[in-house]
Amino acid sequence: MFRMSGCERSWSARPQFPILSEHGWLALTAPDFRQAVLDRVTSRKLAAGDPVYRLGDNEGGLWAVIEGGVQFELSGPQLVSSLAHVAIPGFWFGEGPLIGKEARRHDAYASERSVFATISLADCRAILDETPTGWRWIALLASMNRELALGIASDLLLQDPRRRVIATLLRLTGWRDDLSLTPHLGAVQLSQQHLGQIANLSRTVVNATLRGLEARGLIAIGYRSVEVLDGEALKEMLGEH
To answer: For the whole model, what pTM was predicted?
Structure first.
């Protein structure tokens, strides 16, 4: 069953959400398809830790981050959830049930106080029934999220801990070119503990790496937050230039 928190709130107004029309997946779609989606989205406000959906849920349409973020947790062999990724505004997700009527394969929670856009399965199917060529854009979304998953796996294969921290930090803040996201300007709400979980590194290693990057003026560390000050320099360190 699709679950929403008691903190949810639906807004009757239908603003156009520039973050969605100008950044990320929806910005890459045809104007008529983009407008059809924007005409049907509703917004939800969730508190930190509220579920967007949970593993095994069978219902629900597409979701996008407007403000705040969403974190994805995967269940491992011991059925212990592990933090895999935290996405920033402009990111779309949740296409699985639309494509294959499959149950949700992971948990998705608001990583902080957040605002989401969502469009129901019924509205998604109505758009696609009216314009079957719209499946091209759903395929694009699925491809983008598949590439993200492969990127997460690729980053975890980096043997050098410092490069793994840098790669993870660039991905989480939108600096990786393959994510089609605008780099996040300002601090991202992300604790060193969570960064360590995502990068599969100890907090001690993460702390030492971040302090070194901060000393060079490349990032700024706050309370449970990190801000990238020079993403291009970090990409050079990672060898992506």
So the answer is: 0.86
